[in-house]
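Our consortium's second objective concerns turning raw sequence data into structural hypotheses that experimental partners can test. To show how far this objective has progressed, the report includes one record in full. It was chosen at random from the queue rather than selected for favorable results. The single chain below, 271 residues long, was entered without modification.
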Amino acid sequence: MTQINSIANRPIGVFDSGLGGLTVLKSLEKQLPNESFLYFGDTAHVPYGTKSKETVIRYSRDITRFLISKEVKLIVIACNTASSIALKYLQDNSKIPIIGVVEPVVRESVSNTKSAVVGVIGTRATINSNSYRLMFNSIEPEISIIEKACPLFVPIIEEGWAETETATQVAEIYLKSMLKSNLDTLVLGCTHYPILIPTLKKIIPAHVNLISSGDPVSKTVSEYLKEHNLHSKSDTRYEEFFVTDYPQQFNEIGSRFLGRTLSPVTHVDIS
């Protein structure tokens, strides 16, 4: 029992290519207020959506090794591209549990849609991987999927332009064709995209439900911790942030999003 408690009190690792995973971290902290977290933003290599499969796996492998060296008890891949491409490799080569974002989001979408038409937007790598289409087909094959790669969204968010007129114009171009369908659910298939929700709501009909990764993934993590008796028993919690480039910019934009200073933000080189 002592060993179980020791493992349970370890932090949860969360990683993404940059700022986007903070949307998942925010939900995790709300769902699991007694847990500690280590967040890793690979800001030197953002965006992952334009990288090759081999490169995304390599980056994800190196980050996972870093987080394991920090003695995390579980890792959340708070990145749709890495979840789509590297999840199986990481799970097959790791001794700790690793949870991705695709399956929890798909299950949430299946339970929400009434028209059985679901839109999915994501990075080019996520869309080209067919990860969402395959997961929908395995869970509910009767649902029609409309997919659209939106490669400019991540750079717009990372530059802090999420609520600008430029962001609105780009969103209108990307979603124009999709919104002509009878979809009633839109999957934000990139953890950066919830930062665009105020902009997206300007152009998306009110009846369309926006499904992002945060809540479904947090629920999945909570259920896993409960099932394996891994909820933290510690009286204190902490969080640390690690980035591979631009810690000051990450702190500034991330602080605005989370509503607090991200301290400490440590620059690391894992290449």
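The partners drew two points from this record. The mean pLDDT is 94. The first strand starts at residue 12 and ends at 16. Both points have been shared with the crystallography group to help prioritize constructs.
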